[in-house]
Automatic annotation (TrEMBL):
Transmembrane segments: none annotated. This is DNA-binding FadR family transcriptional regulator. It comes from Prosthecomicrobium pneumaticum. Residues 1-23 are annotated as: Disordered. Gene3D superfamilies: GntR ligand-binding domain-like, Winged helix-like DNA-binding domain superfamily/Winged helix DNA-binding domain. GO terms for molecular function: DNA binding; DNA-binding transcription factor activity. Keywords: DNA-binding, Transcription, Transcription regulation. SUPFAM superfamilies: GntR ligand-binding domain-like, Winged helix' DNA-binding domain. The lineage of its organism: Bacteria, Pseudomonadati, Pseudomonadota, Alphaproteobacteria, Hyphomicrobiales. InterPro entries: GntR_C, TF_FadR/GntR_C, Tscrpt_reg_HTH_GntR, WH-like_DNA-bd_sf, WH_DNA-bd_sf. Residues 26-94 form the HTH gntR-type domain.
Length: 254
């Protein structure tokens, strides 16, 4: 028989329970989705495990059964769990999780470093972003170039003291490059790339040094795009991603 484990007493990460007031139903729903999602991602419920019944989850989270039911639907759509007749809610195999869903990616930083995921995200970025930079060098409009340059200048202005501002500007830079590709599929991945970058920022302990070291490479990416140098733009973006890989590897060894 499958064992039901209450994550409040299980080994593993201590995850927050949803909280809120009667007037913020939307916020409570989001908190419940995030909380249960983090229980799954953090390993409190392993793939194949059966989760508590709806009424038990309602009691654990101090929310209505309707809220739990809606949260289960959302998480089922993201591939994390499934509802099985006579069994209940079961955690799906990890390779069925929609890990590139921006919401799912955003839940990872709170549950600790996931090296397998970070490696996978970086590999995905190596496939997507150099191609986007090459297309941007061919297709970028004046407005696109201004957006990319503003992202770079925002990073430059923020360093070395305003790390949060620098990270926001870095996101804007990469968002601008992908948007400038004018590829409808790549543009649809902007949210995923932003979530991947945010996950990277969260686990990098020396962000000020990291951002300062890559500032010149960001500038080079912009200049290659501005000069319509497609091969140069691809090469510069690959160099930027090489730096990101080195930063993650170095951080893991600290």
């Amino acid at each position: 028989m499958d064992e039901i484990v209450d994550p409040r007493s299980a080994d593993g990460p201590s995850l927050p329970l949803a909280s809120g007031t009667p007037g913020d139903g939307g916020r409570i729903h989001d908190l419940v989705v995030r909380t249960i999602g983090q229980w799954v991602l953090g390993g409190s419920y392993a793939p194949g495990a059966v989760m508590p019944r709806e009424d038990e989850l309602s009691d654990m989270l101090k929310v209505s059964r309707t809220t739990v039911r809606e949260a289960v639907k959302v998480l089922s759509a993201k591939g994390l769990i499934e509802t099985r007749p006579r069994i209940g809610v079961r955690v799906r195999p990890r390779d069925e999780w929609r890990l590139l869903d921006p919401a799912v990616l955003s839940w990872h930083p709170d549950i600790g470093r996931d090296d397998e995921l970070l490696t996978g995200l970086l590999e995905a970025r190596r496939i997507i972003e150099p191609a986007a930079a090459e297309l941007a060098a061919e297709r970028a409009t004046g407005a696109d170039l201004a957006a990319i340059e503003n992202g770079y200048l925002g990073m430059e202005r923020s360093l070395p003291d305003d790390i949060a501002g620098c990270c926001e500007a870095d996101l804007a830079f990469h968002r601008g490059v992908i948007a400038a590709s004018h590829n409808i599929v790549l543009r649809g991945l902007i949210g995923t790339i932003e979530a991947a970058l945010t996950a990277t920022f969260t686990v990098t302990t020396e962000l000020s040094k990291t951002q300062a070291a890559t500032l010149a490479v960001h500038r080079e990416v912009f200049e290659r795009i501005r000069m319509r140098d497609k091969a140069g733009a691809r090469k510069a973006m690959n160099e930027l991603l090489d730096r990101a890989a080195a930063d993650l590897q170095g951080d893991a060894l600290r």
